[in-house]
Amino acid sequence: MMKSKFYLLPLLMAFTLFSCVSSKKFQALNDKYNGLNSTLVGAQQELAACKTDKTDLERNKAIALAQLESQLAAMKEQVEFLKKNNNSALKQLEDLSVISSSQAESIKKSLDNIGSKDSYIQAIQSAAARKDSLNMALVMNLKGAIGNLSDNDINIKVDKGVVYVDISDKLLFRTGSWDVNEKAKSVLGKVALVLKNQPDIEFMVEGHTDNVVLAGNGEVADNWDLSVKRATTIVRLLQKQYGINPVQMTAAGRSEYRPIADNSTAEGRSANRRTRIVILPQLDQFFKLLEKK
Fold first, then answer.
1. Is the pTM of this model over 0.85?
2. I want to staple 268 with a disulfide (CB 3.0 to 4.6 A). Which of 187, 188, 240, 261 is the partner?
3. Where are the domains of the chain?
4. What is the rounded average pLDDT for all residues in the chain?
């Protein structure tokens, strides 16, 4: 009987040890599964947000294209109307002896040029459509670069053909300061990477404040001064740390005079304290297009 007990004891100890190891492995695998599942859910949410942004941009593009096509159709109707009435109007003028035949011919040639002007208008509209497409691509690249930051911290939008990047000052600066914090540098670096890959564009960095009076302290005089210092700080950082060509950049201070929210509330003042990057329209290229015609 005693010998039987000695044989059973090692078996019980082995069974108990095997049960403990299996339970730990199971818990580790379960934790790993939960972590992977959480990562998958987060990725699915980000994908859904990207699809929503893409749908909105495509909808806006379709609306803008439909408006351009409608305007073009109206212009074509006007051109056809003028062409149809061209000859009869000139004949009436000749019969009344108001103008000479040579003058009538000159006017006819001028009216015939309407057809070429119609092509010119189409070329300008085509250039505008290409610009809108480039703006949308730029917005998508910027949103992809910054990731899932809150719109309260950084907001990217297109308004009347111009791309705006608004960065909250709480992400960039301490109150009354124009020194960029380390967290903000990583965000600016992502924005700078997209802008650096577009060497043909120019942009303006604008500093904006709320309407709270800033007491002068010897280093900064007022909100005008603070907004300019913040803009020049960002421009220097983009140039020296991220290698953006200074020829592409302009620094400007707007002080409190371009608010986007009500300064009578804390939330409104927080929204108004921002740095805005404005992608400037390439007017020189537009004027070159006019000169060619």
1. no
2. 261
3. 16-136, 149-293
4. 78
